[in-house]
Amino acid sequence: MEYEGQICRSPMERGSFMLPVSVGCSYNQCYFCMLFKHLTYRELPLEQIEGELQRVKRAGGNPETVFLGDGNAFQLTAGRLLAILELVHRYFPACTTVNMDATVQSILEKMPEELSALARAGVSHLYLGIESGLDDVLTLMHKDHDLAQAYTAIEKLQRAGMVYDAHMMTGVAGRGRGEENARALAQFYNATGPGRIVNFSLFIHRRSPLYRLVQKGRFVPADEAENLAEERILLEELAVPVEYDGFHDVIPVRVRGKLPADREKMLAKLDAALAVQRAAAPLVAVV
Length: 287
Ligand code: SF4
Hints:
With 287 residues, this protein is an alpha/beta fold. The chain has ten helices and ten strands.
């Protein structure tokens, strides 16, 4: 199958077989996100999905974990997802786990019994973009949810037996608000218990709606030193066991590990990176 889009998924999914079931993102309105702005969202026909499964099976593939693409695969109706899951299990009998990206609204739109049926059919990890713990930031970034809705959606999916994982972005609150955002996010994560947190630290694309906010003076980006300091506070404050992986596009810093066991090692790595950034000219991630 020819892939349309830009692959961007959690590093924890690197061993999963990626099966596209849609093209683009059904929402596609987050101001910082340029992954799918050039694509018109559409669901892929079941015949095309089955053809891909047949191709991989013929090549000897029988993966244990499948990741459904693309930007918000959980937007598909429960009926369509169950039909896809039935195909996955038919062609890949070894498959025990199916993961995908989701939005808060795509969970809220489903009935509890639909979520339970999806969990029984193998859906395990849903990755949610919980980029900020501050409602005004979520509004400014044009996210599809507020924090109250996120709490409700996460409780709903956890009750159904699924695991929620969080995508976040240090820097998303802008200059001078890194610490506030880190503490708010830590509070949110400590209350909701994600299995995994992936931090793609904010970088601003010059063609993005967020860049227009910068030009209008409605958003002032933080520099990388503040982003690292934000990340450090978050890692200090996280009180739940969680697997963490954090990247910064414009500086070669990647901090990953399991909390609480790896906390001190991760903080030491951030301290070293912070010392370098504080000694250098301020660097703002605009590309
Ligand atoms: S929901 Fe995700 S993929 Fe869609 S626009 Fe927002 S960040 Fe991008």
